[in-house]
């Protein structure tokens, strides 16, 4: 049972239950945020941190993976609004949100899980991809298609490759570069360099 | 004590000891290759897998992190030889090695650790960076500098940004794209697109 199902099935106005749910999700994020991997995470530890019994958790989630997906999904901000005037500016907006989010400790842990545990928990990662990653990829794909139609981008562009270049570069910076004292100029620098190319 | 120190301190020709060392490094890689995170990895488990006593391990490595660094370092192939004729071709060679290595299960696990556990084990990651990552970065930096000097690349290029674009894109593909049935044409596609830019 996922949290959405639970919400749909439950009669309106049971604040104690909602409070418990929130505490469980928060406890899960706390533990992940402290660096705990999914395999180390236990329903026992989550229950203890949330101050609820294990049965309270099992009433809502049939397994740990579903709980982790729901907890991770609460962290992802919606796709940012795009001005839709310049392809360059919209790409900067999309990339700058990635940089901005990477500054939060919890988002860092989500990234770590997405990066490292996807082989080990393919089911979990698949759900997370659908809920949290695909909407952003769809937004970027749309911007690139618009640019190809408008002439702002090469009409022969390989969209998947362009998306990998833009996203991969920002992921690289958020993981191994120092983004702590960098503002939106990082996203601008990446987009402009990728637009212009490194050849003369 | 690292394995290098041990090697230097030990009189020549103690095959039993060398065999034990190799078994310990292999056992460490086996366990990591099976998806075990560094925090889950224990000297006990490594000793059991290697068929040696814990003291045999502690005689060579004073702690788990040093042992893991030495084990990971054995996996990294040396920087590939570069023809030095065309900047484009040398960049393809460097990126294609990344793709090629990513196909090995053990290297995947190393990547996962480098990606996810660097916040948790900064000391380990720092050593690994020095031994295994920096030599490759230095090679790529040299190729880019050569290109700026020869006119194959823009003379105003921001080298760190160009390196992040090239490396980040290939890392993205090895993690989230499907590289299993792709050959060197992936590296070629990335390099050509980054050289030319996505604008018309």
From TrEMBL, chains A, B:
Domain HTH tetR-type residues, every copy: 18-79
DNA-binding positions: 42-61
Q: Keywords in UniProt for this one?
A: DNA-binding, Transcription, Transcription regulation
Source organism of this protein record: Nonomuraea endophytica
Q: Which InterPro entries match?
A: DNA-bd_HTH_TetR-type_CS, Homeodomain-like_sf, HTH-type_TetR-like_transc_reg, HTH_TetR, Tet_transcr_reg_TetR-rel_C_sf, TetR_C
Q: Which residues cross the membrane?
A: none
A single GO molecular-function term is: DNA-binding transcription factor activity
Q: Which protein, by its recorded name, is this?
A: AcrR family transcriptional regulator
- One of the Pfam families matching this protein, by short name: TetR_C_11
Enumerate the Gene3D superfamilies for this protein.
Homeodomain-like, Tetracycline Repressor, domain 2
């Amino acid at each position: 049972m996922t949290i959405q199902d639970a919400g749909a099935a439950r009669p309106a106005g049971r604040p104690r239950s909602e409070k418990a749910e929130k505490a469980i999700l928060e406890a899960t994020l706390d533990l992940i945020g402290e660096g705990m991997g999914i395999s180390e995470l236990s329903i026992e530890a989550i229950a203890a941190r949330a101050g609820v019994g294990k049965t309270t958790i099992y009433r809502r989630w049939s397994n740990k993976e579903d709980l982790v997906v729901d907890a991770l999904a609460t962290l992802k901000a919606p796709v940012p609004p795009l001005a839709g005037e310049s392809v360059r500016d919209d790409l900067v907006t999309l990339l700058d949100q990635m940089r901005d989010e990477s500054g939060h400790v919890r988002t860092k842990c989500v990234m770590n899980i997405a990066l490292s545990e996807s082989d080990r928990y393919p089911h979990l990662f698949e759900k997370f991809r659908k809920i949290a990653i695909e909407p952003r990829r769809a937004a970027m794909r749309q911007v690139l298609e618009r640019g190809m139609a408008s002439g702002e981008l090469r009409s022969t562009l390989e969209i998947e490759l362009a998306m990998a270049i833009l996203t991969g570069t920002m992921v690289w910076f958020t993981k191994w570069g120092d983004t702590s004292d960098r503002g939106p100029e990082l996203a601008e620098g990446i987009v402009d360099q990728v637009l212009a190319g490194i050849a003369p």
